[in-house]
Design brief:
By secondary structure, the chain is an alpha/beta fold. It contains eight helices and twelve strands. The chain is globular and about 60 Å long. The structure holds zinc ion.
């Protein structure tokens, strides 16, 4: 059994590739999948493993955000509707091809599979919140402001108290800041706390809980405070990295993005 049941008929499957977590919610004959991995081959692995849980096909897809490692498998699950933030659809349309080219260059072993990706943005979009019926269950989607990207959403299953947090939080390695808004990010994580009453599934790494969200929130606040000290000249960026609450492996772009955000350069 590849799946971990984290709440009543709510599952997650860990893949070694990028430490990915893929969620599933079963309700009636519906099968909702949270994120679709990175290539058609990766997406087909999800579908094959799902046979351990159900014979029903995937009927609803949710993208937690627009990054290639979460949304490039989308097309494999059509004709299912694909849900996501409006900007997830826009970014996949406007930047998907450029991102594909970058990843092909960075990961040549994956190039053939990446070139087979049909970039397929969400067709069910929203900007604030949405409710999705999965059989007789409701799954709540919500945007909490800019954080890891400009379009991260949480996926909450109230009757099972399971929260899929996407890359708003990561377990086991520092967050990815390349498209991030480190100053706004703590506010988004704070909004996850009321939803963190049971299992909390990050986009990458092991399943956590409320205490995990609290510790991540403290770390994001600490990083934003360090960035403010860099901005006002009382700390240099190397010292900020060395003292980062996410550890010395915190990427430099965490602070570069934060400084750009503080200067009002991120739009
Ligand atoms: Zn991401």
């Amino acid at each position: 059994m590849h799946w971990q049941e984290v709440g009543d008929r709510v599952f997650t499957r860990h893949f070694d590739f990028l430490d990915q977590q893929i969620g599933v919610v079963l309700g009636g004959d519906d099968v909702l999948v949270v994120d679709t991995r990175s290539t058609p081959a990766h997406a087909r692995e999800i579908a094959a493993d799902l046979l351990e849980l159900t014979r029903n096909p995937i009927s609803i897809v949710v993208d937690t955000h627009w990054h290639w490692d979460h949304a490039f498998g989308n097309n494999a699950f059509r004709p299912a509707p694909i849900w996501g933030h409006l900007r997830t659809a826009e970014r996949l349309r406007s930047e998907g091809e450029a991102r594909r080219a970058e990843v092909v260059e960075a990961l040549p072993d994956l190039a053939v599979d990446l070139l087979a990706v049909v970039i397929d943005p969400p067709d069910h979009t929203f900007t604030d919140r949405a409710a999705v019926m999965v059989g007789d269950r409701t799954v709540a989607l919500a945007f909490h402001g800019r954080a890891h990207t400009d379009a991260d959403i949480s996926v909450f299953v109230p009757d099972a108290a399971v929260l899929f947090a996407g890359d708003l939080i990561e377990n086991g390695s520092p967050p990815s800041f390349g498209d991030g808004y480190p100053i706004a990010w703590p506010s988004a994580v704070e909004q996850l706390l009321p939803l963190a009453t049971g299992a909390v599934v990050p986009g990458h790494g092991a399943v956590g809980d409320r205490a995990f969200v609290q510790s991540q929130l403290a770390a994001f606040r600490g990083l934003a405070d360090l960035a403010r000290e860099v901005q006002d000249g009382s700390l240099n960026i190397e010292a900020a990295i060395a003292g980062s609450p996410f550890g010395p492996r915190t990427p430099r772009d965490a602070f570069e993005r934060a400084l750009a955000e503080l200067r009002g350069e991120l739009g």
